[in-house]
Amino acid sequence: MTVKITHTAEIQKFFEEAAGFGNDNGSPRLKRIMLRILQDTAKLIEDLEITQDEFWFAVDYINRLGARGEAGLLVAGLGLEHFLDLLQDAKDEQLGRTGGTPRTIEGPLYVAGAPIAEGEARMDDGSEEDVATVMFLEGRVLDLDGKPIAGATVDLWHANTKGNYSYFDKSQSEYNLRRRIITDAEGRYRARSIVPSGYGCDPQGPTQECLDLLGRHGQRPAHIHFFISAPGYRHLTTQINLAGDRYLWDDFAYATRDGLVGDIRFIEDAEAAAKRGVKGRFAELEFNFQLQKASSAEDEQRSRRPRALQVVGA
To answer: I need a surface site. Which of 14, 152, 221, 304 has the fewest CB within 10 A?
Structure first.
């Protein structure tokens, strides 16, 4: 027998009280959000006839998800972060704001405060020289007319050959594979790094546990994250996903988009390597970014989320 009570005045009043509407303190915005969460959750429990066991399993799952710090991973895996991009795309289109490099998800592994370099930088600490392929990455930051933007900040980060990120992987040095590069007069940035590996969710973690129950894998292609910013231009959050990766168009986090595939070239030429100052096989990748003009100060700034760590080792 299905019993539903969420529509009653008594239950609605109860949820309003629980959401803080019975007092003048706190945040009105949070109260509205919390009330909607309570109402929608209760309706879901009723409509899908959620059992007591299922409810408390979900509570335990949330506890385990938080303890492992995987909430950011799960929202990406469930497509919610990609949905935010699609929603912003739709808002921009409605306002006639089109063009430029596509946005895509930030992911949960950004760390603020990476070392700054003018024009070019080396990103790796040399710890994987015996196993990594050296990668030379360069490109330009341009406006929508193709004119260079000098003084733009290219904030980039990526995984090592094992698919791990510095700070979260304590075996790596501070800010390994994380840099900020200021573009030169031609809007150009250059970086020497290593070819990153894709990664998968921890098979024993709660994110993969959920994906298993959905019949899905938790793999990502090799990719490089970027924040691109410049005075007077909209902040761009995006990433390059590397061509040829088996998960390029099967990314569990739904980050691969048209216009964001990097055509990485592997070169096995001793003379070319010598000119680059390396030995053996190396890779080259060129990628340009186009920024939209900002319409307000908010357009230039990305929202600072609590998970965006400010200082490594602080």
So the answer is: 304
Angstrom CA distances, 167 to 131, 173, 214, stand at 21, 8, 30
H/E run at residue 289: strand 289-291
Residue type, 203: P
Radius of gyration of the chain (CA): 23
CB 31 within 8 A of CB 37: no
Number of helices and strands in the chain (H, E): 8, 14
Q: Could you identify the residue written with the tokens 């900002």?
A: 294
Burial of 97 (0-12, 13-18, 19+ CB in 10 A): middle
3-state per-residue secondary structure call for 174-241: CCCCEEEEECCCCCEEEEEEECCCCEECCCCCHHHHHHHHCCCCCEECCEEEEEEECCCECCEEEEEE
The one-digit pLDDT tens for each residue of the chain (314 residues) are 789 999 999 999 999 999 999 999 999 999 999 999 999 999 999 999 999 999 999 999 999 999 999 999 999 999 999 999 999 999 999 999 999 999 999 999 999 999 999 999 999 999 999 999 999 999 999 999 999 999 999 999 999 999 999 999 999 999 999 999 999 999 999 999 999 999 999 999 999 999 999 999 999 999 999 999 999 999 999 999 999 999 999 999 999 999 999 999 999 999 999 999 999 999 999 999 999 999 877 677 665 454 444 433 33
Gap between the Cα atoms of 196 and 132, Å rounded: 8
DSSP 46-60: HHTT--HHHHHHHHH
